[in-house]
Design goal:
The complex is a heterodimer of chains A (199) and B (254). Chain A is mostly helical and 199 residues long. Helix content of chain A is 78%, strand content 0%. Chain A starts with a helix and ends with a helix. By secondary structure, chain B is mainly alpha-helical. In chain B, the strands form two sheets. Chain B has a two-stranded antiparallel ribbon. The chains are: A mainly alpha (199), B mainly alpha (254).
Chain lengths: 199, 254
C-alpha cells in the first residue's frame, strides 16, 4: 500500500470487525480517517469509500478517455495508416519494376532470336553462293575436258584414217617387194586388187 | 493462522485519505485509491504518448508495444461487433488500457490496486452496460428489445426464454465487475498470505528459514501467475465489453 506507515496505522481500525483479533496492536490510535460510517467491514465493501472512488474514477477515467480519443488514437491510427500506405506504394513500385524488367528480358530475347535468324540467312546465302560458284567452275572444267576429248577423238580418227589409207600402199609396196624377190616381177594392178581383197 | 498477527492480508485493500475533501455532503477525499487512479492514467497516457512521439515508419520496440495494443483492441472489437462497432473503439481501448495498467501497477509491493475494489470495477461495468442500453435504444428504438426475443423459439417457450434473456442481461454488469474484482482480490490475498508465511517462518530461527523456502518459491510463482491474470482479466473485460456492445449495434442478429 502506497501510504506512510502513519496513515496505515490510523486507517486500519476502520475495518475493526475483521481486525478484532489483532486490534490490540492498533489500540490507542485515533479515529479512523473514514469516520464512523460503514462500521468495520471488509475494505472493498465499505460503502463509506464508494463516493470518493466513483468521483475520482469519473475524473481520471474521463480524462483518460478524452486524452486517448483526441490525442493518442489519432496519432496511432495515423502512424499505422502511413505505414500501410507506404507498404502498398512500395509493393506497387516493386510490381512496376518487375514488369519493366520482364519487358527488357522479352525485348532482349526477341533481338537475340532476330540476330540468330539473320545469321542463319547470311550463312545460307554464303553457302548457296559458294555452291553456285563451284558449280559454274565445275561446269567450265567439264566443258573444257569434253572439248579436249572430242579433239583427241578427232585426231585419233584422223590418224586412224590416214593410217588405214597408208596400210594399202604399204601392203602393196610390201607385196610388190615380196613378189619381185620371189617371182622377179610384179603386176601392180594385180597386187592392188589382191590387197583390196585381203582387206 | 499464525501469520495473521504479523501480516494482515486484508490490510492492503484499506483506503486512506490523503487530502480530505467534501463536496455537497459527499465524501470525495483524495485517497490512495484516487492517487493510484491518477498514477494509472498518467502512466498509460505517458507511455502511449511518449512511445509514439517519434511516429517512426519502422517502429521502435516500445512504439511496437503501443501499436500492438491498439491493433489488438481494434481487431478484438471488429471481430466481435463488426465495422459498425468501431465507433466504440476509444471506449474499449481506454477501458482495456486502464484496467491493464491498474492491474499491473498493483503487482508492485506496497502499491494499491485500484481494481481490487468492487465499486471501481462495478462503475466501469455500469459504464459499459449503460452505453449498451442508451446506444441500443437511441439507434434501434424499441427494436433494441428484440435482443430479449431470440428468433426461432416456439411460442410456448417464449415467455421462459425471454425471462432468462432478461435475467442474463441484468446479471451482466454484476458478472463483469465481480469477475475482475474477485480475480484481483483473490490473487493479492494469496500473494500476501504466502509472503506472510515467509516473514513469519524466518522469524522462527534456522528451521524456520529452511521452511520458508517453499512459500518463497510459491510467492514467486504466484507473482508470475498474477502478471498473467492481470493481462487476462484486462483482456476478458475488453472482450466481454465488445460482445455486449455488439448487442447494442446488432440487437436482432447474433
Amino acid at each position: 500500500m502506497f501510504v506512510t506507515p502513519a496513515y496505515a496505522e490510523e486507517a486500519a481500525p476502520a475495518a475493526a470487525g475483521d481486525h478484532a483479533a489483532q486490534g490490540e496492536t492498533h489500540a490507542g490510535t485515533e479515529v479512523p480517517a473514514e469516520g464512523g460510517h460503514g462500521g468495520g467491514t471488509f475494505p472493498p465493501f465499505n460503502p463509506a469509500t464508494f463516493s470518493s472512488q466513483i468521483f475520482w474514477l469519473i475524473i481520471t477515467f474521463g480524462l483518460f478517455y478524452l486524452f486517448l480519443k483526441k490525442v493518442v488514437m489519432p496519432r496511432l491510427g495515423g502512424i499505422l495508416e502511413v505505414r500501410s500506405n507506404r507498404i502498398a506504394q512500395d509493393l506497387d513500385q516493386a510490381a512496376k519494376l518487375k514488369s519493366e524488367a520482364d519487358a527488357a528480358v522479352a525485348a532482349y530475347e526477341q533481338e537475340l532470336a532476330e540476330a540468330k535468324a539473320n545469321a542463319n540467312t547470311i550463312g545460307q546465302k554464303a553457302r548457296d553462293e559458294a555452291k553456285a560458284e563451284a558449280e559454274v567452275a565445275r561446269k567450265g572444267v567439264e566443258a573444257g575436258l569434253e572439248k579436249k576429248l572430242v579433239e583427241a577423238e578427232e585426231r585419233i580418227t584422223a590418224i586412224k584414217t590416214s593410217a588405214m589409207k597408208d596400210v594399202g600402199s604399204i601392203a602393196e609396196t610390201t607385196a610388190s617387194a615380196i613378189l619381185e624377190s620371189l617371182v622377179g616381177k610384179s603386176d601392180k594392178a594385180e597386187v592392188v586388187a589382191a590387197v583390196k581383197a585381203a582387206r | 493462522m499464525a501469520s495473521a498477527d504479523k501480516v494482515d492480508p486484508i490490510h492492503q485493500f484499506q483506503i486512506n485519505n490523503i487530502v480530505p475533501l467534501h463536496i455537497g455532503g459527499f465524501d470525495v477525499s483524495f485517497t490512495n485509491s484516487a492517487l493510484f487512479m491518477v498514477v494509472t492514467v498518467l502512466l498509460a497516457s505517458g507511455f502511449l504518448l511518449l512511445t509514439t512521439s517519434g511516429r517512426a515508419l519502422i517502429p521502435t520496440r516500445l512504439q511496437s508495444v503501443s501499436e500492438m495494443s491498439y491493433e489488438f483492441v481494434a481487431s478484438m472489437l471488429r471481430d466481435a461487433a463488426g465495422s459498425h462497432g468501431m465507433k466504440f473503439f476509444p471506449l474499449v481501448f481506454s477501458l482495456f488500457m486502464f484496467v491493464l495498467t491498474a492491474n499491473l501497477l498493483g503487482l508492485f509491493p506496497y502499491f494499491f490496486t485500484v481494481t481490487t475494489h468492487i465499486i471501481v470495477t462495478f462503475a466501469l461495468a455500469a459504464l459499459v452496460i449503460c452505453t449498451v442500453i442508451l446506444y441500443g435504444f437511441y439507434k434501434h428504438g424499441f427494436g433494441f428489445l428484440k435482443l430479449f426475443v431470440p428468433s426461432g423459439v416456439p411460442g410456448i417457450l417464449l415467455p421462459l426464454v425471454v425471462a432468462i434473456e432478461v435475467i442474463s442481461f441484468l446479471s451482466r454488469p454484476i458478472s463483469l465487475s465481480v469477475r475482475l474484482f474477485a480475480n484481483m482480490l483473490a490473487g493479492h490475498i494469496t500473494l500476501k498470505v504466502f509472503a506472510g508465511f515467509v516473514v513469519t517462518l524466518t522469524s522462527m530461527g534456522a528451521v524456520g528459514i529452511a521452511g520458508a523456502i517453499l512459500p518463497l518459491i510459491m510467492t514467486v510463482a504466484i507473482t508470475a501467475l498474477e502478471i498473467l491474470v492481470a493481462f487476462l482479466q484486462a483482456y476478458v473485460f475488453a472482450v466481454l465489453t465488445c460482445m455486449y456492445l455488439n448487442d447494442a449495434v446488432h440487437p436482432g442478429g447474433h
